[in-house]
Amino acid sequence: MNSEIIASLRWKKFPVLDHGFVCLVDVMGSDSAIVQAARVSYGDGTKKVSDDRTLLRYLMRHQHTTPFEMAEIKFLVRVPMDCWRQWIRHRTASVNEYSTRYSIALDAVYGTSPEAWRTQSETNRQGSGTCFDPEFGQILTDNEQQFHRQARELYEQRIRQGVAREQARKDLPLSTYTEAYWKIDLHNLFRFLALRMEPSAQYEIVQYASTIGEQIVRPLFPNCWEAFLDYQFGSVQLSRLDQGVVKRLAERGWLPATRQQFLELQDTAWKELERSRERDECYEKLQKLGLVKT
Ligand SMILES: Cc1cc2nc3c(=O)[nH]c(=O)nc-3n(C[C@H](O)[C@H](O)[C@H](O)COP(=O)(O)OP(=O)(O)OC[C@H]3O[C@@H](n4cnc5c(N)ncnc54)[C@H](O)[C@@H]3O)c2cc1C
């Protein structure tokens, strides 16, 4: 069964953004291979008390991570360089990237459509706010296209003039696509996906991570994927301080609480602060859990 799924996925290019893609090159392992590795440590006895799915869920819940390292996946990806710069920070993968010292840079850039330009977020210094009016977005897009054309022309002119490829490339924009083989074990891939599928990550890398997760990991490792969604990606981590707030609200019978009630029973360390990111995050978590009124 797994070999049929692998055959149907291998080399299939799942499109991402305008010219990007992710595709499966190779995979080693499956849900059952991870179970097999885990049973080495627990012995045959586990067969009696838990089926494969239950065991995988136990491993994920208790962060018994090494069995997930037994599976490896190799991808071919095509990504704009600014997005790749974030991607490559995940050091636990093996990478082999297209060389623009050796070859001509890919003639593909990530263009932004008029309705896709985002304002700077006012609350998150790393994030985006709302979208610009498409009329203004059109001006930004026109300017971008002109700049992309000029940058490419300058690059190709340098190449024609005999400038070394390694030097000619230095003014190419970060929106230029690069390609790479990217191989990673399932444990570290889940860590990548947990960080990069989060809506607070940059939109572009979220598209790549979600495509890898939904289109490739889910069919290859259905039970692991389900456990990942339940215990990693979809979980809410409550700190000791968060738990204190919930306990105090429950004791007063104030659940779900109003914003005012939340502020009244917030942690004492946050009380004096006009702005507190930790307090905001706590409120967001309680919103997610339906414990405060929206
Ligand atoms: C929303 C967001 C914002 C970010 N903003 C910034 C930013 O502003 N600036 C910036 O520089 N980075 C930023 N990063 C990158 C971030 O700091 C991490 O480098 C990136 O997420 C990779 O995570 P990782 O180190 O856990 O992954 P991996 O490199 O895959 O490592 C996985 C785990 O292996 C272990 N490990 C790997 N290598 C080492 C090592 N050399 N020493 C010790 N342990 C190791 C660690 O436990 C690590 O968690 C951001 C990431 C996110 C998701």
Molecular structure report:
This protein folds into 3 domains: 158 residues, Gyrase A, domain 2; 58 residues; 49 residues, no CATH class. Helix content is 52%, strand content 14%. The protein has a 5-stranded antiparallel sheet with strand order 1-2-3-7-4. The protein is flat. The two termini are 46 Å apart. Bound molecules: flavin-adenine dinucleotide. The site of flavin-adenine dinucleotide has 10 residues, from helix 9.
- Main pleated sheet: 5 strands, antiparallel
In percent terms, what proportion of residues is strand? 5-15%
Task: Indicate the CATH class of the largest domain.
Answer: Alpha Beta
- Helix and strand string, N-terminal first? HEEHHHHEHEEEHHEHHHHHHH
Overall pLDDT score: 95
CATH topology of the largest domain: Gyrase A, domain 2
- Counted by DSSP, the helix tally is 15
Rg, nearest Å: 24 Å
Provide the number of structural domains.
3
The largest sheet has its strands arranged as: 1-2-3-7-4
Which geometry do the CA atoms define?
flat
Task: Reconstruct the topology from this structure.
Elements: H1 2-9, E1 14-16, E2 20-28, H2 31-42, H3 45-49, H4 52-61, H5 66-69, E3 72-80, H6 81-87, E4 94-97, E5 118-120, E6 128-131, H7 134-160, H8 165-168, E7 177-185, H9 186-196, H10 203-220, H11 222-233, H12 240-251, H13 259-264, H14 268-271, H15 277-288
Antiparallel strand pairs: 1-2, 2-3, 3-7, 4-7, 5-6
